[in-house]
Write a structure and sequence with these properties.
Layout (H helix, E strand, L loop, with lengths): L2 H11 L10 E4 L3 E6 L2 E6 L12 H15 L7 E10 L2 E4 L4 E10 L7 H6 L5 H17 L7 H16 L3 H4 L1 H27 L3 E3 L9 E4 L2 E4 L7 H4 E3 H14 L3 H14 L11 H22 L5 H16 L6 E7 L5 H8 L10 E4 H9 L14 H21 L3 E4 L5 H14 L2 E8 L2 H10 L9 H8 L9 E4 L4 H12 L1
Parallel strand pairs: 11-13, 11-14, 12-13, 14-15
Antiparallel strand pairs: 1-2, 2-3, 3-6, 4-5, 4-6, 7-10, 8-9
């Protein structure tokens, strides 16, 4: 650290610069952060690493302004501006008229307990929060600027870098894990490289967040907000939007939040309107690479500390995850049917993380697809004509179309709809046969009074069904049900267990 920066640090640590309030000083490998009251000030450390250079005042100003530019649109509640620490005959001042000697990013401070890593640690990750998180990331990606870069080249270079790093980490990671990663990653890359290049041409390679994990997401007014996007390397920050999401999905699974990871992916896919369904062919490799990078960093962390500790154990866990993500697991198609209120969506959501490859099956719900076709918010109530025979057929066509695309990528699918007409049930079974995947149909049942009570008690749900709809459905002849039937009036966990047994 230079003498100049040392003086700036002491200056910014002085309570007098913060209205007399106490100051907490947080150091990271690339920054000094000063926390006081409702304000956070950040300066870049005057350091230069192989992967990150903040060695000159000009570079530090440039990087802080880039950090503001990248993060303020998504998190205006946090990011304020960049100002100078100046020096004149009276000494240092913040935002003065003297010569700039350091640059400061000013931010509004948020409580540490609002970070999603802290939310997860408290066991407060819910399905609703996971849905909101997936949608927030989708909106973030929708606003991300496109980049003229070949996605296949970007991923190929990362694999090469990991293989080079892992070649000297066999003792820490295990030679078998390293060999498995290289073999499976290369095989997957060769298979999907053309897809990655196509996605580049279609605009799916963008200037993304680059570091999208739980510590870089925060709840603001109950909304998940990405912050601290990677600013110091445009190459690292430029990637396929699914690769950007893969870091978060992998991080959730590493925290044993498999259900949340599945919900996040499903919410993100729904927000994309089906445009990202074919991209799922790349997801196993993306998840594995994200885990491989974490493994590499953890080994390097222990090496820097000159001992093998928890970081190396975590690295081995990440490598095991990478191997599992790239495992050859056949896809399958599940259909969950039954009258409104029978519990289809609740069961499908519980089953999805346990089906197929990471992070589980894509859950396609007729109620959501109907709203998407109508171009309305999932919670907006649709008029009766949206439920005509013609409209219903359009919804089922959309379900089958999305399912066919996703199954072709190797990802499993759960379809969630009433499937009251025999032709609808036959169509989904035929789709599985065409796709060459195993099919299981599940039919849920409960007394009419129970169904009516459940739909009446619903709140904030995409379904428009009420008790009158249940009455109409109960009068319909659904024909012979050949699917596995379950009564849903008992304990829900027992239902989940029995359904999973059927799928094994």
């Amino acid at each position: 650290m230079s003498d100049e920066q040392d003086e700036v640090i002491h200056f910014l640590m002085n309570p007098a610069q913060h209205g007399g309030a106490s100051v907490d000083h947080v150091e990271t490998h690339g920054a000094h952060i000063f926390l006081s009251g409702d304000e956070a000030l950040k300066i870049k450390r005057a350091v230069s690493y192989d992967y990150m250079d903040f060695s000159t005042l000009e570079i530090r100003e440039q990087m802080l302004r880039r950090e503001l530019e990248l993060n303020q649109p998504a998190a205006p509640e946090i990011y304020r501006d960049v100002i100078a620490v100046t020096l004149d005959k009276n000494g240092l001042s913040l935002g003065g008229k003297g010569k700039p000697v350091e640059w400061v990013l000013r931010m509004w401070r948020f409580p540490i307990e609002a970070e999603l890593s802290q939310v997860v640690a408290r066991g407060e990750m819910t399905d609703r929060l996971a849905e909101d998180l997936g949608r927030a990331v989708a909106r973030y990606h929708a606003q991300s600027s496109r980049r003229d870069a070949d996605g296949a080249e970007l991923i190929g270079e990362i694999i090469e870098e990991l293989e080079t790093a892992f070649s000297g980490m066999g003792a820490q990671l295990g030679d078998a894990r390293v060999a498995q990663f290289s073999s499976r990653a290369r095989k997957a890359f060769d298979r999907i490289a053309p897809l990655l290049t196509e996605r580049s041409a279609a605009g799916f390679v963008r200037r993304c967040h680059g570091d999208l994990h739980l510590r870089n997401l925060v709840l603001i007014d109950g909304r998940p907000v990405p912050f601290d996007a990677l600013e110091f390397d445009e190459t690292l920050g430029t990637c396929d939007i699914l690769y950007d999401l893969a870091f978060l999905v992998m991080d959730l699974q590493h925290h044993d939040l498999h259900r949340a990871a599945n919900v996040v992916l499903n919410a993100w896919l729904f927000e994309q309107g089906g445009a990202e369904d074919s991209s799922l062919a790349a997801l196993p490799l993306f998840l594995a690479i994200r885990a491989g990078i974490r493994a590499m960093v953890d080994v390097q962390t222990d090496a820097a500390a000159h001992h093998e500790g928890q970081s190396t154990k975590d690295a081995q866990s990440y490598m095991d995850y990478a191997g599992s993500a790239l495992a050859d697991i056949p896809s399958r198609l599940i259909a969950v049917g039954g009258l409104s209120g029978s519990g289809k969506t609740t069961l499908a959501r519980r089953l999805a993380p346990a089906i197929g490859r990471f992070p589980g099956a894509v859950h396609i719900r007729s109620d959501l697809e109907r709203k998407a076709l109508a171009g309305v918010d999932p919670l907006e109530h649709l008029p009766d004509d949206a439920y005509s025979a013609t409209s219903a057929q359009a919804v089922y066509d959309r379900l089958l179309e999305r399912a066919e695309t996703i199954l072709a990528t190797g990802q499993s699918v759960i379809l969630d709809a009433t499937f009251m007409a025999p032709a609808e049930r036959e169509a989904v079974a035929s789709l599985a046969a065409r796709a060459g995947v195993a099919f299981t149909g599940v039919w849920l049942e409960a007394p009419q009074q129970t169904l009516a009570s459940r739909v009446t008690d619903r709140r904030d749900d995409a379904s428009d069904a009420d008790a009158s709809v249940v009455v109409k459905q109960a009068k319909r002849d659904v024909g012979e049900i050949s699917w596995t039937r379950f009564d849903t009036t008992g304990a829900f966990e027992d239902l989940v267990s029995r359904a999973l047994d059927t799928l094994r």
